[in-house]
Design a protein that fits this description.
By secondary structure, the chain is an alpha/beta fold. Helix content is about 25%, strand content about 20%. The chain has two domains: about 180 residues, 3-Layer(bba) Sandwich (Glucose Oxidase, domain 1); about 150 residues, Murein tetrapeptidase LD-carboxypeptidase, N-terminal domain (Rossmann fold, 3-Layer(aba) Sandwich). The longest helix has 14 residues.
């Protein structure tokens, strides 16, 4: 890989999907009619990144690699009170996690907020958060997995861009000795936070549905997105490029969650669909085989629509989990030779 230009380099997504079959079909471009996004200020040397735990717990020593790397980028770090706190699986009680995240949302000196890790818990506090100060002085919110709650809520209500990216628990202990793909994904966070135009290319998949689309990018973890249906944080997919990723689910559960998106019409008016890593899929119980691959499930749900669809994009619970700017306009090109997502 050409490390200097990794953002536009060809990357291969290790999504662990089943064997491929050929599908014909050309997608048509759909342009989102949404207004221009509100983009938080990009970071400069000396700016402060806050670290908080709105979901699962993380120990203070476990965030040190992330602190070292982000400080090497020229940023200062503010460690939240929930780092090192624990209430069973949570990073402190609901009240503690709420107060810590609220304080960071309200602090104008903090220019970005990074979640310590995922897990579960943000949905327990999201309705109690006050985003009024955040609306006046927006900042980058960074994370994936459970942080999908924040991306969906912020995008739906405020139209403010946020960053779907690795969190503190994904930073390597020794950056210099880590694999190139890990270095590149970590550096994609720096590139995104400092205002670089993001562009990713990945190898084609024979089950892709070709075409070109332009729209705002939205998405994240499938189970989180479907769990937000009919809530105040429900994702808005109309005219947008939707990306999905998942980990550790049974095939029938994946089909049920995708079916929820279909039945709630979240797949009807997309500009395009990106399927990232669907990893560590649990084996069926003997005699209870579901008999359908992720490819089968997705293509069945979108068979009535003509927008482009790509599989194996480098996002998800995997090493090649690159930073994506949610709420920003992107162009998705799905062709015979390559797939490109360009801000």
């Amino acid at each position: 890989m050409n490390r200097k230009h990794f953002l536009s380099a060809l990357v291969t997504a290790g999504a662990g999907l089943p064997a491929l079959q050929t599908l014909a079909g050309i997608g048509s471009a759909v342009v989102s009619d949404k207004k221009e996004p509100q983009v938080p200020p990009y970071l400069k040397p000396g700016d402060i990144i806050g670290i908080t735990c709105p979901a699962g717990y993380i120990k203070r020593d476990e965030i040190q690699p992330a602190i070292r790397i982000m400080e090497s980028w020229g940023f200062n770090i503010r460690i939240g009170k929930t780092v090192g706190a624990r209430d069973y699986s949570f990073g402190g009680t609901d009240a503690e996690r709420l107060a810590d995240l609220q304080a960071m949302l309200n602090d104008d000196n903090i220019k970005a907020i990074m979640c310590g890790r995922g897990g579960y818990g943000t949905a327990r506090i999201i309705d109690q958060l006050d985003f009024s100060r955040f609306q006046r002085t927006p900042k980058w919110v960074i994370g994936f997995s459970d942080a999908t709650v924040l991306h969906c809520h912020i995008g739906r209500h405020f139209g403010i861009a946020s960053l779907h990216a690795k969190m503190c628990n994904s930073f390597p202990d020794d950056f210099s000795k880590s694999e190139p793909v890990i270095q590149d994904t970590i550096m994609s966070i720096y590139q995104a936070l400092t205002g670089k135009k993001m562009q990713y290319s990945t190898a084609p998949d024979s089950r892709n549905r070709k075409g070109k689309a332009r729209g705002m990018l939205t998405g994240g973890n499938l189970s989180i997105i479907q769990s937000l249906s009919a809530t105040n944080s429900e994702i808005d997919t109309n005219g947008k490029i939707l990306f999905l990723e998942e980990v550790g689910e049974y095939p029938y559960s994946l089909d049920r969650m995708l079916g929820t998106l279909q039945r709630s019409h979240k797949l009807d008016n997309l500009a395009g669909l990106i399927i990232g890593g669907f990893n560590r899929i649990k084996p069926d119980d003997p005699g209870e085989e579901f008999g359908r691959t992720v490819y089968d499930m997705v293509l069945e749900k979108v068979k009535d629509f003509s927008y482009p669809v790509c599989f194996n994009f480098p996002v998800g619970h995997q090493k090649n989990n690159y930073a994506l700017k949610c709420g920003m306009m992107h162009t998705l090109s799905v062709g015979d030779d390559t797939v490109t997502l360009k801000e």
